[in-house]
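Residues determine shape. We examine one folded chain.
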Amino acid sequence: NNVGQAIRDSNADVIMSVCTGAFVLANTGLLDGLSATTHHGAFDSFERQFPKVKLVRGRRFIDNGKFITAGGLTSGIDAAIHVVERYFGQQMAQSVADYMEHSSTQWHSA
């Protein structure tokens, strides 16, 4: 499909989905064999439609290196701050979180 080809052709370091955007990524086949998450209201549907993707329930986001999938809106904020941390360090990520008045600390790298 066109989305899958665009992603394959991309030289982006990170491709991120939020909420049910994981369906779009999974539909390309690029998540096959990888772990991913999506919005909790879509877990069963995702699992049925994409049996080659290892659905992880109960995690705010999953980072596979190139692909990051986030469960929902605020999980997407955590994932985005996590990406800031990856590229610019914990201090910058904390500054971004503070500026946004985002009190979750679940964006910290493992």
